Amino acid sequence: MKYNRLYTYGLIAAAGLAFTASQAPAQDDKSVSVLHYWTAGGEAAALNAAKTAFEKLGGKWIDQPISGGGGDTHDQVLRSRILAGDAPGAAIPKVADAKNLYEEGYVVTFDTVAAKEKWDSVLPASIADVLKVDGHYMSVPTNIHRFNAMWANAKILKEHGIEMPKTWDEFNAAAEKLKAAGIVPLAHGGQSWQESILFEVVVAGIGGPDFFRKTLVEYDEASLKSDTMIKVFDQLRKLRSDVDPNFSGRDWNIATSMVIKGEAAFQFMGDWAKGEVTTAKVTPGADILCSAAPSNFPGLFLYVANSFTFFKTGDGNITSGQELLASTLMKPEVQAEFNLAKGSVPAVSGVDLSKFDKCAQDTAHDLTAADAGHTLLPALNGGMVSSGEMRGAVADAITKFFNSDLSSEEGVELLLKQIDTAR
User: Fold this and answer.
1) How deeply is 376 buried, as exposed, middle or buried, from its count of CB atoms within 10 A (0-12, 13-18, 19+)?
2) Which residues does 115 contact at the CB level (< 8 Å), separation at least 6?
3) How far apart are CA 173 and CA 120, in angstroms?
4) How far, in Å, CA of 251 to CA of 247, rounded?
5) Max Cα distance, the chain (Å)
6) Beta bridge mates, 290
C-alpha cells in the first residue's frame, strides 16, 4: 500500500489538536510529554519502569497514550501534532520515520549527553550508526528485538528425533518428516506483515549479510533479480507448503499458541513471541526452544531497536527534562528493568543479564557477536532504514506471492515492480 503523506498529515487532526498547547510542559521543570502506543502487557510494564526511574531522578513524565497496536495511529497523531505546532516532548516513531522528521527540522539531538555518557562505547556500532544523522544521535534506544528468531515445541522435536535446524536444508528435511507423521511443521498467521517477516528471514538465510544489504537496504536491481533471489522465492514457496490450511488472517500470537500447545512444531517470529510463552507458564529455552532462524551464513542477527525520539518544543532547544529522560533510558539498570518486562534485550552493553531467561541471554550473546562480525542487519519490517512506502511495497508483493500459484520468477518480477513503484 503506497504511503499517503497527505493522508498522514490530515488524519486524526482532531486527536492531535486535542493535546493543546496549554498542556505542553514548562521548559524548566524537567517535564516531558511522552506520546506512545505501548498500552498493554509487557510493553506497558516496560514503559512504566522507565517512567518510574525518570521520576525518581526528578523528572515529570506526562503520559499521552494512543490506542492501537503497531504504531500507525501513533504516527498519524504525531505528525498532526507537529504540524499544529504542538509536538510532544518525546514519541516512539520507527527510526527511518524519525530520520525524515529530523531532516524536516523537528527533532532535537543529544550531542552533549551522548558525549558525556560515552554512548558510542556502550552501543553496538552498527546500531549507533543507524540512530545518528550527520553524526548526531536523533533517537535513544531502549531495547533490541531479534526478528530472525525461531521457536519450536521441544516435546515434538524430541519425539521425532529432530534437532533445532541450523540450515534451510535441515529445516526442510525436518518439515517433511513432520508432515509424514501428520504434524503441522510451521505455525503461521496469514497477514502481510508476517509473510514479509518470513521473506526477510529467508533473504538473510539464503543470501547472507551482503545480499540482504544489497536487496532490502539498498534495493539494488541486479541483486533483486539475481538467481539467489529466485532461490529465496523457492524457499518461501516451500514454507507455504509447511503451514496448515487455516492460516489465513490468523494473528501472530495465535500461531505462537499453536507451538506452545503442540499443534505445530515451529514458528518464525521475532523474540517478542516469548511473552506468549511466559504468559502460558511454560519455560522458554526448555519447553519451547529458541534459536536463530535457519541460515547458510552463521551469526546473522536481524534487529529492530525500539527507541525514543525527542521533538522541538518551546524555543526549539533541548530541554533539561528531555536530557534527563535520554540519560535515564540509557542507564544499564533501567535498560535491565525495561527489557525484563518487554521480553527483548538491552541496547547498551554492561547490563547484568543474570535475571534474564536463557533465550534472552543467548540473544544478547548473539547480538554482541553479530556486531563484531558485521552480521548485524536492520530488519526491513522494523523500519530502521526503510520507509513506510518501501515496507508496504515489499509486504504487498510477498503476501500476493505467498497466497498464489505464482512461480518464483513471477514473484521476483512482482517484487521488482512494487519496489519501483515505491522508490
Assistant:
1) buried
2) none
3) 43
4) 9
5) 68
6) 151
Residue closest to 78 by CA, chosen among 304, 310, 387, 307: 310
Q: Which three cell numbers stand for residue 44?
A: 506497558
Residues 409 and 15: their CA atoms lie apart, in Å, by: 45
Q: Is 264 left (phi over 0), alpha (psi -120 to 50) or beta?
A: beta
* Nearest Cα residue to 371 out of 111, 95, 129: 129
In tens, the pLDDT along 356-395 reads: 999 999 999 999 999 999 999 999 999 999 888 999 999 9
Q: How far apart are CA 342 and CA 274, in angstroms?
A: 9
Question: 319-367: per-residue pLDDT in tens?
Answer: 999 999 999 999 999 999 999 988 899 999 989 999 999 999 999 999 9
82's grid cell: 507537529
Give me the residues paired with residue 141 across strands: 307
Q: For residue 316, which phi and psi values (nearest 5 degrees)? A: 90, -10
Q: How far apart are CA 363 and CA 392, in angstroms?
A: 28
Q: Please name which of 227, 232, 239, 233 lies closest in space to residue 187, comparing C-alpha atoms.
A: 239
Sign of the alpha-carbon torsion through 48, 49, 55, 61: negative
